[in-house]
Amino acid sequence: MLLSALSSALSLFGFATSPPAQDLFQPHVANTPQPLTFQLRHLHGVMDDSNIIFHDVPQQFSAASTHSVTTRRTKVPRPKLQADFHRARRRARTEGILETLDWDEDEVVAPDATNRETLLELAKMTNNAYLEPGDDGWYNLTDNWNKSSPFGWEPDADGFRGHIFVSSDESTVVLSIKGTSAGVLGGGGPTVRKDKFNDNLLFSCCCARVDWSWTTVCDCYGGGWKCDQDCLEQSLVEESLFYTIGTNLYNNVTYLYPNANIWLVGHSLGGALAGLLGVTFGVPVVAFEAPGEKMASRRLHLPSPPSTMHITHVYHTADVIAMGACNGVMSSCAIAGYAMESRCHLGVSSVYDTMTKLNWSSDVRTHRIGVVIDQLLSKDWEEGLPVPKAEPEDDCVECYSWEYGKFKNSTTGSLHARSGCPRS
Q: How many domains does the chain contain in total?
């Protein structure tokens, strides 16, 4: 019913839901992909009843918000059947059984994450996910992205938000996901509460248990440095969790553009969600200044694909959130009520060493996407090096002080324990 309504609503505004002329998965596509042009077409978001809402952008804003990016061909692993992927998740969570999935390796057109101009355009898309067209701070895009739509910008919408950019030939769709809007001095807008809830559930070691004075986001604390693993994983399957909403949104987008190539981009929380959805659906991801999402992927029991090289993280060393250094009771994150304790990222990371090369100080204020756009991506990183080399994060460890197992949700002891990080 929802999909039919969305399809009918979009058709009223002249946005076709039929397949585009070119299928990027067919072998006749040239080996050297051409640059793509995108334009804002839809805003997206979630109402209190968890329904996903699309809102069409007025033509005058859509025409003024276009992006051009260079591309490359890449191979992405995809589960042969999404039903098998979600069944494996469910059995791992409820029965402790790890299934071996069959994966396809598809060749797709992806953004060229080694190209500075491409990263700059995608970063502008992630910035715009925080805004409505015409707002102060909105970045106009190049002529290539000629259709776009926002989602989640109704006055009462308090959750998952962003924009959908569509290439001029409808061959490629970019889903840009909004990150955290921090509620400083009562500001931040209606999404602040749910943004903070998702941050504290996805990126804390145990339900945002920082010290005795904190109100935790789930009842899984087992006393001392102990956390109930089953309780923690069950807390991540609630319908209000943004990952679940993101999977529904992705399915709606593929329904509207059934033969389009999908890319995911996002900043901060939005970048981490993009990474989780990139593992789920096997699509290219570029995430900016995101907290580590590898721990959340394990707790969500996302089956591990043969490779996650299709996920690229871009961040710098002065950003305490992306570096996993904004923790402890005296950190700026904790003072603001955020338990940002994760640090390990999926895929590969292109890390700008701004502390060594630019003498930046470690500061949460450098986390803003505007800093990345205006002070990092507006010029080449070094002569002959547009972008730092993207590499896997080997030997990354997080939450090493905690024990995860089956614990009573109290401070008086445990039933049985297992030390180390959460299981895969």
A: 1
Is 168 a catalytic site residue? no
Q: How is residue 150 written in tokens?
A: 């926002």
Residue that has been written with the tokens 């409808």 in this structure: 170
Give me the catalytic one of 62, 171, 181, 268: 268
DSSP one-letter string for 111-179: E-TT-HHHHHHHHHHHHHTTS-TTSTTPPP--TTB-EEEEES-STT--S-EEEEEEETTSSEEEEEE--
**Which residue in the block uniquely carries the two structure tokens 């910008």?**
153
Q: Per the domain annotation, does 76 fall within a domain?
A: yes
Residue 133, domain member (yes or no): yes
3 state DSSP class of 32: coil
Compute, in degrees rounded to 10, the torsion defined by CA atoms 390, 392, 393, 394. Answer: -140
Q: Which helix (H) or strand (E) holds 265?
A: strand 261-267
- Its pTM stands at 0.83
Q: Convert the pLDDT of each residue in 171-220 to its tens digit.
A: 999 999 998 887 543 445 667 888 888 899 999 999 998 877 788 899 99
* Three-class secondary structure of residue 58 per DSSP: coil
pLDDT of residue 144: 59
Q: What's the Cα-to-Cα distance from 176 to each of 159, 238, 309, 368, 369, rounded to whole Å?
A: 14, 23, 20, 16, 13
Query: Does residue 424 sit within a domain?
Result: no
Q: In sequence order, which residues have a C-beta less than 8 Å from that of residue 332 and are 6 or more positions away?
A: 320, 326, 364
Mean pLDDT calculated for residue range 264-293: 96
The answer to the question of residue 422 being in a domain is no
- The set of residues, in sequence order, having a beta carbon less than 8 Å from that of 58 and lying 6+ positions away, is 133
Report residue 221: phi and psi, to 5°: -70, 130
Q: Using one digit for the tens of pLDDT, what is the confidence trace for 218-275? A: 999 988 899 998 898 888 876 557 898 889 889 988 988 898 999 999 999 999 999 9
- Using the predicted structure, report yes or no on whether residue 167 has a pLDDT greater than 60: yes
- Give the structural domain span for 327: 2-416
pLDDT band per the 50, 70, 90 thresholds, residue 44: low
